# Entry
Amino acid sequence: MPAARLRTSGLFPLVILTLLAALTFWLEHATRPEAGGPDGKLRHDPDFIVDRFVARTLDPQGQLRHSLTARRMLHYPDNDTTDVTDPRLVYFGQEQPMRLFANHAEVSGDGNKVTLLGNVTVVRDATANDPAVVLTTTAMTVLPDLEQASTDKPVRIVQGQTVVTGVGLELDNKARVLKLLADVHANIPRKK
# Structure
């Protein structure tokens, strides 16, 4: 009988070691990320956040061309885009600046495209001869360096007592051309 007892007591440490090895293998396997599975690089989390953001672009002569300011900016590395809260885009260099406002904007990775979203307003200040122009829409795509903008959404333009509405717009700030694309209606008061 004592030989059987010795044999059983000798197996106990071997069983414990086997269980520990199996548990270690299971833990290593359970905590290893799956091949091709999500990792931190592919999550849509901002890698940096900037409050009271200001970006300025100069022309070749060093004069201020346009500026983009915002309450907050978040950059996402997974798709190299930037989300901007309360953006204000201002174009300089003409007799009066053109200002664009919105609730939100999405900026492409190269900065060549800005999509303004929510309560988009474009203002060209009054001159000595003309009242201010105020354009409103819900979304607008802006190409800042080309000074061009477009939308396929309904648009309302007010200049003094003149009101023009339409759907879709193409705007060229350099050429000072604004084209409404469809369903255009105008209310132009008679001059006295």
